Amino acid sequence: MTSTRGFYKAIKSPRPYDAAEVARWFQSVSMERVNAIGTAMEKYISINLPQSVRSKSRLSDYRTSPYVLMATAGALRLEDLRELSKFLVDIKLYMGLETSFGKSIEKVVMGQYPEGSCLGNQWQEPTEKVEEFAALAGLSNEEKSARRVDSVWREIDSSCVAGNRRHLLTIKSGTSTINDTQVGGMYTAIRDNHKEWLRTSVERFEVHGIDVVIGLTYGTDSATNNKENQILAKLMSAGFKEMDRLTHPGVLTNEEGTVRVYRAIGIDYWAYVANPANPAETEHAFLEVLLGLAVALRRAHEKSDIGAALNERLDLLSSAISDLKFPEGDDLPRWITADLGMSELTWLAAAISAFFDGR
Q: Which residues contact 217 (CB under 8 A, 6 or more apart)?
């Protein structure tokens, strides 16, 4: 067993902002790829963002923690229904996009890489995972859920071949996404399935080995909740060993060197996605993604009805909150109306809705 002493410290190196370095990266950005990402993301945003906003048509769709809602509304002094409604719409929009945008990045942006890849060799869902899913066709949701327990490929989101190795990537959105349950699930999946991943990769793609990578799309090594590193530490008690702590920190390998496991975070994640064989050459890739998204947002807002959709939800939510009826007259204790003003009662009405269905 490889000792894990000092492992976390060795791989949690800080990444301070370096303006000169960022300036150099901007010079390496591909205008063609930025426009390609922008065009692809524009289609997603123009269709799905207004649709996502309009899909929430009831007060219950904006349900959030009533305790946090009241505390935040009080701290921000959201004095009227419009302000409170805007807060609820904004927070639900953010929460919804955090999930849906992660999926769109996998489907839309990942397909633009690796750099120089030919058609059919971009990042895509593993063929084996597609086949696993197809085998469940015709089953009920309950039956599918039961069968997925035995899935070999469930934890692998995307794959591609670069050089003589196949790269298998599990994608998590950010620095605090992975929880303890997922640590156990991902560790178990890699421990139990890496030999099968290697076998089928060698047979289908004639590669010499595989890289299994835990990817976080933003953040830095030192800013994560350490869960991705816990997965690696657990694997060191299951037959994996460090490749070289000084020259390849955080890279684990099996005894034969045919399977490597490591994580890639933020800038390193996009560099790896853009060039799995040599990420050091593509550290600018994260800028291409951000610039592409900026282009997409400008184009989408110029021709879509995102703003109209948001205003519709504000009007609907304000009306729904105002329609909530409190007990009147003697049914409402006098000390409540004596101690609480209209602002506090409005926040209370919105919070109470979290405990009921309908509307």
A: 102, 105, 171, 172, 173, 174, 266, 269, 270
Tell me the two tokens of residue 322.
């105002």
The tens digit of pLDDT for each residue in 54-94 reads 777 676 777 778 888 888 888 888 877 778 778 887 777 77
Question: How many CA atoms are closer than 13 Å to the CA of 337, on its beta-carbon side?
Answer: 9
Q: Whole-model pTM? A: 0.82
Distance CA(62)–CA(317), nearest Å, equals 9
| Residue 44 vs residues 48, 97, 99: alpha-carbon distances, Å | 6, 12, 14
Q: Is 109 exposed, middle or buried (0-12, 13-18, 19+ CB in 10 A)?
A: buried
Which one, of 300, 299, 293, lies nearest residue 217 by Cα? 293
Classify 349 as helix, strand or coil: helix
Q: CA 346 to CA 85: how far, in whole Å?
A: 11
| Chain length of the chain | 359
**Would you give the distance in Å from CA 356 to the centre of its chain?**
30
DSSP state, 124?
A: B
Q: Where are the domains of the chain?
A: 7-300
Tell me the C-alpha distance between 245 and 254, whole Å.
15
Give whole-number Cα distances, 30 to 34, 37, 128, 257, in Å: 6, 11, 32, 34
Give yes or no for a contact between 345 and 326, defined as CB atoms under 8 angstroms apart.
Answer: yes
Instruction: Give me the chain's average pLDDT, please.
Output: 83
Report whether 265 contacts 221 (CB < 8 A): yes
